[in-house]
Amino acid sequence: MKPLTQEDRAAALPALGETGWAAVPDRDAIRKVWKFKSFVEAWGFMSRVALLAEKLNHHPEWRNVYNVVDVTLTTHDCDGLSDLDLDLARRMDKLAGEAMVQRDHGQPITCLCQERKGKAGA
């Protein structure tokens, strides 16, 4: 597997950026955070992605807390972004459906239970 060329990056990354994918500081990787309506929706998304990732033999780095799924894509075989990452990112976007996207990765990521707790304490 080969890393993306500068031409490939220029052609593909802006469109992915418009959907919420962003560069990961200090890594050749992209990241996206989805917020689903429930834990079941988040887990269903992860299950569908897991089956797809297994078929592609390309697995995301991800974290799930309640309704939030936080994904980082990079290809470890080439130590950076590859066509596999672009393909998986696009497919994940389709599988996520109408989930909300947290575009500002510098802000704290809160799940529904934390949001409910905050409202109860207000």
UniProtKB/TrEMBL annotation:
EC number: 4.2.1.96
Keyword Lyase: yes
Top-level class of the enzyme under EC nomenclature: lyase
Gene Ontology process terms (BP): tetrahydrobiopterin biosynthetic process
SUPFAM superfamilies: PCD-like (SSF55248)
Family annotation (InterPro entries): PCD_sf, Pterin_deHydtase
Catalytic reaction list: (4aS,6R)-4a-hydroxy-L-erythro-5,6,7,8-tetrahydrobiopterin = (6R)-L-erythro-6,7-dihydrobiopterin + H2O
Lyase among keywords: yes
UniProt xrefs under Pfam families: Pterin_4a
Single GO MF descriptor: 4-alpha-hydroxytetrahydrobiopterin dehydratase activity
Keywords annotated in UniProt: Lyase
Entry similarity comment: Belongs to the pterin-4-alpha-carbinolamine dehydratase family.
PANTHER family according to UniProt: PTERIN-4-ALPHA-CARBINOLAMINE DEHYDRATASE
Protein name: Putative pterin-4-alpha-carbinolamine dehydratase
